[in-house]
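Thread: "does anyone have the structure for this chain?"

Original post by V.I.:
We have the sequence but no experimental structure in hand. Need at least a predicted one for the grant figures.
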Amino acid sequence: MFAKDNRSRTVLIAIFFLGIAFFAVNRLKEADSFYHLAAGRYIVEQRSVPAADPFSITAAGRPWVTHEWLAEIVLYAAWFAGGYWMLILSAAALAVATYALLYGRAKRLGAPYGTTLLALALLGLPTFELWVPRPQVFAYFLLALELWLLERWRHGDRRARLWFLPLLLIWANLHASVLLGLVVLLWHAASASLQSVRAGWFGAPPRTFRQVEYWLFALGGALVCLANPNTWRIFTYTFTVQSTLQALPVEEWRPLISYFNDGDAQAFALGLAAVSLLALWHFVRPPKAGAARGRDLFSLGLVFGGAIMPFIAVRHAGWWPILAAPALAVILAGMTGRSRARLAPGREKMFFAIVGSVFLIAAAARLPRVYYNPDTVPVPAADFLAEERLAEPFFNVYNHGGYLMWRLGPEEKVFIDGRSEVFAGRPVADYLDILHGKRLKELVDDSYHLNYFILPYRPADTARALAPLYSWLIQEGWALVWWDDAAVVLARPAPANAEVIRRRAVRRIGPWTDPRNIPAGERGAAAAELQALLDRIPDSKILRIYGEELLKTFRE
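Reply from O.Q.:
Generated one for you, tokens below.
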């Protein structure tokens, strides 16, 4: 009977973790993953970590804080070994390993497997989309590993403490969030010290507590973090990028409160508040006799810290389940203890089997079919540019820069990309002026001598924002030579581009041309232009919609 129960439990746990793996398989929906690949390739080929920008025309030679160099090498190695799907599956595998560590930590805190799985699913669901191949996924894993090791140390395994300094050393070369890992280690020492002073209120200190030892490891971690190519700048990176991020602004660096008109953001904020209040209630109420754990000041601080971080920048939402899920598992166990005691074991397993199956089916239903988002990543446009080799230099938007840097660089230089720290000051100011249709003659013709533009034209707010720029380019005779779901390419009417314009110019159709306004005598030529584009990108949704509208005009 005991073996049968263990087998059924193992199956349920496997169902949940398979669901986590499926949820963490995310297509590359934005360009930052690609600029990390470009950086990793450059480091491997040059056999050195660059300290200055080699990828752009606007910030060439400027200082570059390559704080993610080691992660970029690993990402490039994964791509080199198996392409984009290997890259995506590697991030998903890291997600499973991270949640396995959270499961192990919750079990050490005394939470049963059922409420632990439920807590992981509840807090993980809003953030699984963040498991994309970027350096932050290594940091998620390392934070979970740090917390798991801390729990082992707190429970008497003194060998666990020996891993903290190597862990922070690796982290400092993977991602600037090592500062968070250091803060957690400092909070571990501070909370244990408070518990040793006021054990009745803050809870008993860990059984391994030795104040000098705890603080030595915390301070030693700060020194170890300096062992990276950027030394102390790893701690100030977040402040270094702020001027550029505020000027653009970059969506993932905006606080959660700025998205409060969105229902998902409101629900996420309510979840943060609810779990935080539950954690506070669980902490202040008198501990029950025989409870697995009493008051835990360390976990309470993690929950409140994790709840605050998305209000600093929404990109920090990914830390929330790592910091809060094990504590929530303990709270749920305390709240459902009596109900579970009355529930027959078979019915409890049936409940979790149903929940786990729904979780797994929902995860499987969202598995992507292609490795990138064709609406946001300009893959076909970049293929066109790589084939035709329009004259440089060119202008691109921030969100396209990373992919173009990977696909065309470093030989062809981008105008701007996701490495915000290198573009502070004049580069970002010039970028915004061009984007908003200001000083175009001065910047496009005189300062940068731009020969083509690759630009988005959707959604509607983007089209409105770029209308002055598009109008100027069209008035100046720039030719539309490419159009797909993510981007358009407009080429300067110059001798260097003449052959490409002759062969590839799209003269009768386009995102700004209503099919109903195409003269009857030009509809055949318009259909031929559209078919030429569809031959290259047969899966294009926007071109097929345009074609349906064009055919409709033929019938009228």
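V.I.: this helps a lot. Strands lie at 394-396, 452-455, 479-483, 488-491.
O.Q.: and The chain has two domains: 2-365, 379-555.
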